[in-house]
């Protein structure tokens, strides 16, 4: 939405989402004047749409208990749309989560295996490591493995 400062007529592009929650006080970067800005009101319609008629209920299927709540497949599949001012993060929080990726799980397991093997090799070959790299003697001494 394009907004102009009432004092100096500087124009700014303000996203509609910034004003969706209601009017906000803005400050002009050019002159420092503070003013309130809001989304324009939608045009009022003279006639409201006619109310939808409710279709007659279908007879219960054989074996169904009378008075038991039932939901049609179209009603259970519908989800209410998010409010117009909802942030993308809020919409993602309501989205169904996907199952964990098997390749990611395998990658974590391989990484843990490699780290475990490296720790074992550092313990098993500590004498050779301390001979080849003398500064490692301090580390092994701190760990009590010297």
Automatic annotation (TrEMBL):
Q: Origin, by domain of life?
A: Bacteria
Region Disordered: start-end pairs: 37-98
Q: Where is the composition biased (Low complexity)?
A: 68-78
**Which key words are in the record?**
Membrane, Transmembrane, Transmembrane helix
Keyword check for Transmembrane: yes
Give the transmembrane ranges.
Answer: 105-125
Q: What is the protein named?
A: Zinc finger/thioredoxin putative domain-containing protein
Its ancestry begins with: Bacteria, Pseudomonadati, Pseudomonadota, Alphaproteobacteria, Acetobacterales
- For bias type Pro residues, the affected ranges are 40-62
InterPro entries in UniProt: Znf/thioredoxin_put (IPR011723)
Q: Domain Zinc finger/thioredoxin putative: where?
A: 1-36
